[in-house]
Amino acid sequence: MELESERNSSKVDNGKCKKEEEEEEEEERRKLGGIKTMPFILSNEICDKFAAAGFHANMITYLTQQLNLPLVKASNTLTNFGGLSSFTPLVGALIADSFAGRYWTIIGGSIIYELGMISLTVSAVLPSLRPPPCPSQVNCKEASNSQLWLLYMSLILTSIGSGGIKPCVVTFAADQFDMRRSAVASRSWNFFNWYYFCMGMATLTALTVVVYIQDNVGWGWGLGIPAIGMALSIIAFIFGSSLYNKLKPEGSPLVRLAQVVVAAAKKRKEVMPLDPGMLYQNKELDAAISVNGRLLHSDQFRWFDRAAIVTDEDAEDSKSPNLWRIATVHRIEELKCIVRMLPIWSAGILLVTASSHLHSFVIQQARSMDRHLSHSFEIPPASLSIFSILTMLAGLVLYERLFVPFARRFTGNPSGITCLQRMGVGLFISVIATIVSALVEVKRKQVAALHNLLDSPGAIIPISVFWLLPQYILHGIAEVFMAVGHMEFLYDQSPETMRSTAAALNSLEVSMGNYIGTLVVTLVHKYTGRKNNWLPDRNLNRGKLDYYYWLITGIQAINLVYYVICAWFYTYKPLEEVKEEDVPAEDEIQHKQFNYAEGKGDVELRRNVMV
Predict the structure, then answer these.
(1) Distance of alpha carbon 581 from alpha carbon 569, whole angstroms
(2) Which end of the chain, N or C, is less surrounded by CB atoms within 10 Å?
(3) Torsional class of 416: left (φ above 0), alpha (ψ -120 to 50), beta (otherwise)
(4) Using one digit for the tens of pLDDT, what is the confidence trace for 402-428?
């Protein structure tokens, strides 16, 4: 009896020591992060966004005016590399979530991105790396293969760098705050709204200052300034390193998902218990991957629940479970979260497909229109995007200060409306914006025909460029709802250890949408004839761009219907926020037994206090 008492006393002492260590680690973690880290993280992201926007916003002009590429070839080049830069974040996210962590992934990606910007800046400075100028845009000599290869190498480097930056920065910034639902509901501000507001300010600066320099000073400075901005962003990010809350990666999330599938397949012939409470749970095993709370059992996709059936063999290995044979409820629900998110996520693919080439074509439209604000000042075509950005910035403030409090009165939701409702509104407004784009193109060509300018691709049509303003405003409003709601949805509904991967899903969506968009544009260009081609290489006035816009409108309308159906059947993830008390209470300790076939054993020893 004395020996048994000593053993129990030793266990209690070890438990207290372990508890004290965990409390010390938690206290240390609470000292890190918070508002004080935002100047460093957001200055990095602002400089990065400034660099990326200044680098890519006017790139269609660089390819068509400096490298003399045909419009469709130039647009497809940008879209293809845009697709690549949206695919690489999936790889970067897996690296961050598996072993490198978000901090080091951001630094590595930023350095590679900077190398790509430097190489393209060098090509813009040295005349030998560009074809001869062609102001008339008739019978121009295109860039040689070697000149194009330098361009491709630069774009590949920036695409790889994006893979380390895109999926990690917004999630790394969110890691600095308590993002549990109770904490989010108690705050009077939405992190994602203000994150997008800061990014919009950086983009606005790039579209005004950098694009003006590119069009009026030169491409050397026009690309060099974003490269300098990117270098400053790396320095700012590293400078705040000691303040960051750096969550440790807990192994590859894809391995955990695969383990659940394999375990469920191995137990496909086992009989499911009637009580879901008899499924395997292990709080200690899941502690590192459920910091903000454990996922509760849900009735959807119950086939995966077979992975948590406890058999005699599992009971024998209870101290060191074989995760390829048995999975906890939390790990099963991680997989269910991803499966539930996929239909909603896929609705964004066709939206990107619809909008992938719009920016390039609108810039070409604007180049043919009257852009004078005064006798001496013209708006650069690529700078028209500032109206979309300004609308988004104003919209985010109005959304936060007016719309949310108003909607909260009727819905009772602290956020006003749900993420799914917010995204649906954005998709609907995007359809309206594309309809307006088609109508404006019809008007532009009518004026061109009236002044006999249909066969003059370099002529300025006497119609104000501000006819394009309504579609830019509508796209800005759509972004307030769709873009911010989409990112918030992916962050909130993904398992906490897979948030970089979830953010990468957003980029993968853009990648797939861009490639499908390239396929659509290529097929339209190929099969709409040589004489009355919808998307001609040189003379947009003789094209049928309005027909292309109507095609895109149809795609978006079908996509909206698909999204509404998916959102209607979506189930939000069930999350239990857990708080540990300092002193264990004997009456709160619950032993759950299982009686399966002829075997008996402890399934779980847990003490949870729900808040």
Answers:
(1) 38
(2) N
(3) left
(4) 898 898 888 888 888 888 999 999 999
